[in-house]
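Researcher: For the record, we're logging two predictions in this thread. I'll number them. Prediction 1 follows.
Model: Prediction 1, sequence and structure:
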Amino acid sequence: MGEGLKVDTDKNFLKSLGYLGSWILIAIISALMGVLVVGLFLAGIKWARGLVNISSGSPLVILLALGGSILAALISRIAPGSRGEGIPSYIRGVRDDGGVIPFRESFVKLFSSFATLVSWGNGGFVGPLGRVVSGFTSSLIGLFKPAAGEHSHRRTAAICGVASIVGVITGAPVGSGIFAVEIIQKRNMSYGDLFPSVLASSFAVFLSRYLSFSHFFEVNVVIAPIRPEILPALLITSLLTALGGRGFELLYSGTTRLLKRDSHKGVELRFAGAAAVAVGLVWMVNPAMLGTGSGFLQQLFDNPLIVSGKMAGILPLALAALLMVVVRSVSVGLTVGSGQSAGFFGPLAQIGMLLGTFTAFLFGYADNPGNLHILQAAGLAGMLASALNVPIAAAVIVSEIFGPHLGFPAAIAAILGFQLNRHHTVYDNPELRQRSVNKLVEK
């Protein structure tokens, strides 16, 4: 009996060792792929913008956005399933298709998202590039014809692809891996998904830092004690993020229906019209928010007065912050709602930080960097948790970016933001579940 038990134990050990080896290999491949794609993507944007030499402050940026949107529409015709944000098709591929994410759509999406974002289109990198790299890694592992099932290596590769992109962009090694899993199955996360995902994001963060990449969220936090008197402002910020997440979902679903995103007809006109309105609106109010708005996010953290934009001297700072929330929400809703390839993660982070900045102005904390950062961190975590339904990932990512001393406001806002909006998310709304557009009957 003792010998039988020993043999069984050895088999389990070898099985676990096999899983670990495959996880590490897939994680390293995904990390390399993520760093390579992000590096080339950003280098291409820098080169192209330098070539046309049109800054975000020039009115010519609207014409540039028109041209970029039309180009993106033409590219997307090669694979219509490549349109949209990207994460919904990743979720569907992992949940329903065992991690099979078509390579052709991923390849086309890389170029259509580049055309959108290089021309100052409004949106983020995480969704489209996460979809691209998950498709690349899934297809690469698929060449070895792995066994199907819940623990398929191809499924693991798709998850690790998204984790690596979030890691490179945020610089959060643990939270990024949790995000890639929580976004697909928050009620039933398993170690079999979490372990390789966190390995992939951690390898990606390590490699990107070794290569001196600049993450999109690099902030110098002023450490201040969290005193009881700031709790009302913290709770109001959390409540605002819950309302903001729900409002963004309604705006996006309404825009999607209004613009008939899934229709093949008039794609170029739909993209161009949405781009002109979205970019023109942002340019008239605050050009710093154009495109991914990563520079705006950094400036907002260091200098909250940037919320005034072109409204300086016209609106009180608190109202200016709310106006920026509305403008950013509308511009991203129009861009992605029309079918253009851009993401939600970065814009939602900005909206959350703007809500935290609004509360800081309202309560008189904006002049105190420590208190300001507490509310901005809470706003970021609450907005991601509310709109994307990823409370654990949101709290961990914000704690890794801002520092562990802000884990308390991040956790409070993430839990409240999620709990008050847990049945609504921009990814799971039936109106927004991306179908394979190739299968749609042309209307």
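Researcher: Logged. Prediction 2.
Model: Prediction 2, sequence and structure:
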Amino acid sequence: MGKASMEPKILLEISQYIKTFIEPNEGQATKCDFVRLAMATCNLVSQLLFGMRREYDDREFISLMSAMEDDLQTLGTLSIFKNLPFGSWLLASTLKKRNRSLDVQYNAIRRLIGDHKASLNSDEPKDLADHFLIEQSRPENKDLYIYSGLFIPINQWYL
């Protein structure tokens, strides 16, 4: 996946973003929030990892991006609380909120990997996940290509 192969995908994502979020508000102030920008970015990464993109009105995608936003806000709150002398008693509820956000994110990743395994065509790998799963299926790579080797990069890149 070089620059030339990603260019059409980037242009498609930009045009979809403009069509969905900019054009309906033409002549008015446009809300440019975290979730909308994260959706566009995650779609580009998703095309690299999974060879697919999601529509901006996909409820699961919106839920995933909202959970990611909640997680980032919670991390900011945790960093403030840990520096306060009375902050430790506030941490418990904040950590519960973060765990709920992480559950949403991790379940989405597990579903994506499972769906990808189910539709894998070893003869025609189309993305990074396919290449990883093919290498993982080879007996000589059994101990080298473990599940977390795909899960962790997806978690870091995609989310």
